[in-house]
Amino acid sequence: MSVDGVDWLLDSDPAIRWQALRDLADAGDAAVAAARTRVAYEGLGAEILAAQESDGSWRLAGEPVWLTTLFTLLLLRTTGADPADPNVAAAVERLEASLRWDDTGCWDLRAGNPNANAFFEGEVEPCINGGVLALGGYFGRPSDRLAQRLLGEQLDDGGWNCDAPKSARSSFNTTICVLEGLLAYERAVGSAPEIAAARRRAHEYLLDRSLFRRRTTGDVIDPRFLELAFPPRYHYDVLRALEYFRDAGVPKDSRIHEAVRLIESRRRFRDRWLLERAYDESLAVPFNESAGEPSRWNTLRALRVLRRYS
To answer: 308: which strand partners?
Structure first.
């Protein structure tokens, strides 16, 4: 691994720096913890916390409140801000106290509706609920009811699809969202054999397709699966899948070799990877990377995937 790429990450936003120290530079626990402490007070993490409204939401003109709130909070999770930090804990408490999902099953958030699901209980679509479950697990609000709902929605082929039961075939996009949610839930509650078994079934769904190919023909399922995108949304791509597998501690498997080689092939000068697609709409804060330019976020993610699987 070239020093250039890692040094570039260490000289950046605290949200990236602390993860590079932990995952790439083998820094000691004290140094990692000290760097992580800065996330809630400097850079992107601090900007997200400062942008929260008094009712606990995040807002952007012209966008539904639920959308901006969900996407911005998912980005906060990606920064690795410490849930125990007082500023982070207060933000989560504000959101939890007043924001609920509309009780008709729509995606709109309502303030103070006692008959609607609390925010961390989720709503109706598994792609959204996967993200909500991931947030609940990370921020100390794991929802047993939401986890059980998602288990009940797993399809026969091992994945999930927001169009089920109309569609009996799983969606890569929905499946990766649910997998991330179930993993965060499992970590929050401890041993959860039923959750672990469901995740393993979903792993096989992805692995049997080499993470991006049709099982029947071997064709690429969707060209967007090969684009290295950020921030996380509902969209699947091979880097997101490999990041999940790394995070979940999934052992090396010959069925991911092609996807790993794809990530390696996208390496640019001085160990940097481009942002090939930006899903930065509906964020309450500016996202300071542009499609087609070198991306610290994608470089961080690619380097730690390659460290695990190359």
So the answer is: none
Whether residue 235 has pLDDT greater than 80: yes
The rounded distance, in Å, linking the Cα atoms of 104 and 309 is: 45
Tell me the pTM: 0.95
> Could you report the per-residue pLDDT of 28-78, keeping only the tens digit for each?
999 999 999 999 999 999 999 999 999 999 999 999 999 999 999 999 999
CA distance 54 to 201: 42
Q: Are 146 and 133 in contact (CB under 8 A)?
A: yes
Tokens in use for 27? 């820094």
Place of tokens 């990377």: 289
Distance from C-alpha of 281 to C-alpha of 87, rounded to nearest angstrom = 25
Q: C-alpha dihedral over 193, 133, 184, 223, to 10 degrees? A: 100
- Determine the pLDDT at residue 113: 65
List residues bridging with 99 in a β-sheet.
111
Q: Using the CB atoms, write b or e for 243-271: b if 16+ within 10 Å.
A: bbbbbbebeeeebbeebbebbeebbeeeb
